[in-house]
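Hi R.,

Here's the chain you asked about this morning:
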Amino acid sequence: MPLSLALAGLAGLVAVAVIAGLIWRALDGRRRRTHDASVSPEELGSHAGRTVLLQFTTETCARCPQVRRMLRAVSDALTGVEFAEVDLTRRPDLAAKHRILATPTTFVISPDGAVAARFGGVPRRMDIEAALASLRSPQEIR
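And the predicted structure, written out as C-alpha cells:
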C-alpha cells in the first residue's frame, strides 16, 4: 500500500473520530423529550408529592459525583426542591422501566410525579434551573 494512501486513510479516520466526538459532546447533558413519563410514589419514597431532582447513577459512574454535587447545590438553594438518588446497580428494574441506557441520567419531577425534564449525561446548572423554573412560580424561588 502506498504511503500517501495510508496517510489519507488515517486522516479520514481522524476526521470521522473528531466529528463523532463533537456530536457526542453537543448531545451530552442536553434536555431530552420525556414522552409523558412519570415516576410512581413508591419509586420516590419519602419524596413523593414534592419537586424532586432525581439522579440515576451506578457504582462505576465517573461523572456522577460532580452531577450529585451540582444537583444538591441547586436543591439546597431552592425552597421546596429535594434531591434523590437511585443506584441502578441495586435497582435495574428502574433502568428498564425508564429506558436509562447511560449514567448519569437526571429527571426533574413535578409534585404530581410527572417527569418535567430528562437529562442524559452531565447537565448544565442553568438548564436544571430553567426546568425547575417552568414548574414553579417566581415567588417560590429564593
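Strands lie at 31-32, 51-57, 81-87, 105-109, 115-120.

Let me know if you need anything else.
M.
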